[in-house]
Amino acid sequence: MIKVIAFDLDDTLWAVKPVIIRAEKRLDEWLKLMVPELLYDVTGMRELRHELVSREPELGKKITELRRRIIEQALRLSQIDPGRAFELSNDAIEIFLAARNDIEMFDGAEDAIQDLASRYILGALTNGNADINRLGLNHVFDFAFSAEQVGAPKPAPQLFNAALEHTRTAPHEMIYVGDDPQLDIDAAKRIGLHTIWVKNAERPGPGESRPDETIEQIRDLPAAVARLHDRS
To answer: Alpha-carbon torsion 74, 78, 79, 83, what sign?
Structure first.
């Protein structure tokens, strides 16, 4: 019997590209206002990423901390005092995260989540840094784990294992809903979870496994869950 439904977030419940573009624009505007002597804009800061990850490979698994460190490095290279650079980078990442979690859900997503929350335990498993508390979803999602928290992004099994351990459920009692055929569907299938693929034109597949259900729009999710529930 299905007990838990876990969701990928970005590009499953909302389109992430416009969110990131807007968040980086807000960050860029804030930095220019607060630090007019800064020699880098957000685009220029990307050049610092490779250097930092080469020096500290573990940062590659910590996307929020990596972005903060990139900002701090850009400030230091602009001759900002190290102490002030550290403080400003922490303030800057808060500006970014506030905008990064200012999202617009796909049509029907909120209704689908509310519908399912009345019958199942819901949770989020994401490689990104969307935050259910900042998003205002903590009243319907019972748990949320990010790759940064567990130390490994999908398709590694750690996120799925964290959800199974947290909910004390077996793999066949959980559905994973995602848009990426490899990172979501294949990865969840390898753990033994049921899967529902939300089609994404930018990630057409195929993956190595077949999802248990495929939907065109997130609004169709409750019906897909009902079909899976009946078969389980």
So the answer is: negative
The answer to whether residues 76 and 86 touch, using CB atoms and an 8 Å cutoff, is: no
| 5: β partners | 122, 175
The three-class DSSP label of residue 216 is coil
Give mean pLDDT in consecutive 10-residue pieces for the chain, a chain of 232 residues. Answer: 97 97 96 95 89 91 95 96 97 98 96 96 97 94 96 96 98 97 97 96 83 96 93 80
What local confidence, expressed as pLDDT, does residue 168 receive?
Answer: 97
Please state whether the peptide bond connecting residue 155 to the residue before it is cis, i.e. omega within 30 degrees of 0. Answer: yes
* Residue 206: cis peptide before it, omega within 30 degrees of 0: yes
Predicted confidence at residue 84, as pLDDT, reads: 97
Instruction: In whole angstroms, give the CA distance from residue 63 to residue 40.
Output: 19
By C-alpha distance, which of 134, 110, 139 is closest to 222?
110
Amino acid 230: pLDDT: 85
pLDDT at 46: 86
Which domains are present in the chain?
A: 4-14+104-231 (3.40.50.1000), 17-100 (1.20.120.1600)
Q: Which two tokens stand for residue 23?
A: 């968040």
Ranges of beta strands (E only) in the chain are: 4-7, 121-126, 143-146, 174-178, 194-198, 213-215
